[in-house]
Design goal:
With about 400 residues, the protein is of the alpha+beta class. It has eleven helices and 19 strands. A hairpin with a 3-residue loop joins strand 7 and strand 8. Helix 2 packs across helix 11.
Amino acid sequence: MLSLQKTKALDTDYLESLGFVWHTDTDETSYISNELVVISEAEAEAYYEATNTLYDMYVEAAEHVVENNLFHEIGIPFNLIDAIKESWENDVHWHLYGRFDLAGGIDGKAIKLLEFNADTPTALFETAIVQWAMLKQNGLEEESQFNALYESLVDNFKRLVTLEEDVSTFEERYDGWNFLFTSVRGNSEEENTVRLLQHIATEAGFNTEFAYIDDIEFSAEEGIFYNDVNYELWFKLIPWEDIALEESDLAMLLSHIIKNQKAIIFNPAYTLLFQSKGLLKVLWDLYPNHPLLLETSFEPLDAQKQVEKPIFGREGGSVTIINENNHKVESVEGDYDSHKMVYQAYTELPTDAEGQCYQAGVFYAYEACGLGFRKGGKILDNMSKFVGHVVK
């Protein structure tokens, strides 16, 4: 059984002073668990190595999709294919950050990839700021975490200019480009996450501004404007698949803006390839029986426990666990029933004494850089809790 260390809960006034306002779930329970998962240095290193390996594998799988025109097979909307190709083929479209969801890694269980949240990953604020504060407020060593997420993002913002590992030349190469950060209006969690990223980009040395999506002007020929200022760099915490399916005019405009090199958009359009759970099937085809992978197919797997999940689902919506006899044993309702499904071999998550399941999330920003956990039922949904960690 995994090892946990109880902590003093962070009070809501303190959390809000950090800018963290989504601290209480709809059932009035705390979203932040007052415990830490205890891991060893060897376990932290294993998460680091596994995540770096998986990212390299994702790059190979995405290249396979582009070269073989497999966009339809993994559910990519047709109106973003050109934007994906343009962004994939030009190095200026730098992947800023993503989060791998992993089973295992603690309690003696092997690390297994569940999926990659490559475009608009949640839990950034929790991982970078809140779990560090948990150590600080409980008198623990602040360095006792696998958590360099904040610093890694500072450096990766600088790489948007240097396009290489070395960021020491950022100041001499930065040409004063304007960087606009955007979320939808009325969602405090998303807005504060975006404002955290804006703060980090400002610390890195960029000229930054924040605006809601409905206040921005888009021109295929001229680019992206807010208050009559042209922005060469634009970060949006709005999923590419939502833009493709719900805002087709905007998808067309952004495709033209990318093609005409009028702005660089983050995360890049090609992260939709990584985001698609259809790529899990491509990974299995390219790396069959790889120790970090679970068998995945577009058809139900024969005579084994498996998870059916939509290629672009979020927060456990429309996910079903199916047993060896093809009977549904657990499911979460969602808005993604009409999506293409993948079938992934089931793997047990580490559990605590109460039977709660723990799933690791490792952020990637040029390299693996930050670990956090979520706990809940066998299918983690939007009522799951965030759990920090400590390395001992």
